[in-house]
User: What shape does this take?
Amino acid sequence: MKIVHYEEIEAKNFDSDLARGVTGRVLIGSADGAENFCMRLFTIEPGGFSPRHSHPWEHEIFFHVGHGAVWDGEGWTVVGPGVAVFVPPGVEHQVKNAGHVPLAFACLIPKGAPEL
Assistant: This one.
């Protein structure tokens, strides 16, 4: 069993033309013996965004701090604390911070997908 506070986990920062102000952490992954899923935590600074992309696996997102918007391939949907999003395989998506505080969300991906 693993019990850890997210701040104890090494963060990877993403800051480029494709992704701005993004920090990612692998909360639970293959290194912990997780055989089916990887749980990640992302934080996006105000004005920041993840890359717009798609991939052949599904993933689930749960927003718990801040306010943002999710691109679903056709338009933006506002999200905030308590909102869950299911991204089916092959759907273009992106997350951006639309607020004034960091946007934080947990993201689950299946085994075999790049953990970060």
User: Anything to note?
Assistant: The radius of gyration is 14 Å. DSSP finds no helices and nine strands in the chain.
